[in-house]
Design goal:
The chain is an alpha+beta fold. Helix content is 13%, strand content 20%.
Length: 382
């Protein structure tokens, strides 16, 4: 999804007009057009329902990279054979656990967290190559567990201030190839139901619910874009990016420019520009987490050279701290924006989408940020 990032307007009503930005945006539109075509072609041929039953929350769970490859893009074919049909099947929350097992996911050795459930990762390992985490309630008899949270393992750098607050990340733990800290978002309310119950299976349906770092930060993300509620909770309105929606960011302290990377809450919600419901979230890191092969072209996410060799962070080089080039962090924001404080000049994101937001026939959840046709455009600010 990182390929949807571009130049941010300096005036919320007017895109920037300088020649450098215009040239960059022209290239960006071409890349976006290719991505949209790839996305529509992929989803049109898959089993993804454009508007799943409302009784499931989230109705779908999409782990998408920037070129709309699905989970298979992250796994070597020598480890597990994954077809497009199998990949698309995991998008429907019903049966997600069974499909993930077929794809090579396994429960970790971690104890069940009553506020999150049981952690599942690829091959049950904590590795920098497979950084995404799914949480499920326990299976009971023949009844599989249900999705109860998503998370990310941060190997290497984590901003010192975010560690010191103790709000978001776990303690440092050993993984297969280094140490890591975890962060998670609960999709079910562990205060109202037992997410570790091994005797009575949890019912699949539940109200829309998102809690950042339950038991630590306990920051509730509204399931719909209630502007006043979000502002009162300390969120600030950001830009709308096609395929993603309107971003809302939260800082730990009042901010003046330049923004400090360590003050940004590492979870960002994205809302629909049409009905205000939640499109998805992304985790953000303050350094370059993507293990992009040096010999592959980092600006071309469809390069087959990298298809099975990148990790679960978004399928791109990352977002620059500086406002230059095609992909930079300020594209998520509106008005004046600049950053300091990343470890290496980069941010990295990991998107989890709760809808199929790709423009395609009869898809009410398509996210075009107000555009009448699925034509690439720069970030939109209200």
């Amino acid at each position: 999804m990182a390929n949807s990032y571009g130049s941010i307007p300096q005036d919320p009503k007017k895109p920037r007009k300088d020649a450098t930005a215009a040239s960059s945006n022209k290239k960006l539109y071409i890349v976006l057009a290719v991505i949209l075509i790839v996305g529509v072609a992929f989803f049109s041929g898959s089993h993804v329902p454009p508007h799943p039953p409302a009784e499931h929350w989230p109705p779908v769970i999409l782990k998408i990279d920037s070129a709309f490859h699905m989970l298979p893009s992250f796994y070597p074919s020598s480890t597990t054979e994954i077809t497009a049909e199998l990949a698309s099947a995991n998008l429907v929350e019903m049966g997600l656990l069974t499909t993930l097992v077929e794809m090579g996911f396994a429960k970790t050795d971690d104890s069940c967290d009553p506020l999150l459930g049981e952690a599942w990762t690829f091959q049950g390992e904590r590795s920098s190559k497979y950084a995404s985490v799914f949480y499920f309630t326990p299976s009971v008899g023949d009844t599989p567990g249900v999705l109860s949270g998503v998370g990310a393992d941060y190997f290497g750098h984590v901003d010192e201030k975010l560690i010191e607050t103790g709000m978001f990340f776990s303690e440092e733990k050993p993984g297969t190839d280094g140490s890591y800290r975890s962060i998670a978002v609960a999709l079910r309310n562990g205060e109202e139901e037992n997410l570790c119950d091994t005797e009575a299976p949890v019912k699949p349906g539940n109200p829309a619910y998102l809690m950042v770092s339950p038991g630590k930060a306990n920051i509730l993300i509204p399931p719909t874009e209630d502007v006043e509620e979000l502002k009162q909770a300390g969120f600030q309105a950001g830009s709308c990016l096609q395929l993603m929606g309107f971003h809302w960011e939260k800082f730990l302290e009042p901010q003046e420019l330049p923004y400090k990377a360590g003050d940004l809450m590492p979870v960002v919600p994205m809302y629909s520009s049409t009905d205000g419901t939640l499109n998805g979230i992304f985790f953000t890191a303050t350094d370059q987490k993507q293990t992009w092969p040096e010999e592959c072209t980092p600006v071309n996410p469809q390069d087959p050279c990298a298809a099975t060799r990148v990790n679960m962070w978004d399928y791109s080089a990352g977002l620059k701290e500086a406002n230059k080039g095609r992909f930079f962090m300020c594209a998520n924001f509106c008005g004046e924006c600049s950053w300091t404080g990343t470890a290496d000049g980069w941010f990295t994101t990991m998107h989890f989408m709760f809808k199929n937001t790709v423009p395609m026939p009869d898809n009410p959840d398509a996210e075009m940020c107000g555009a009448k046709t699925p034509q690439p455009q720069p970030p939109v600010c209200r």
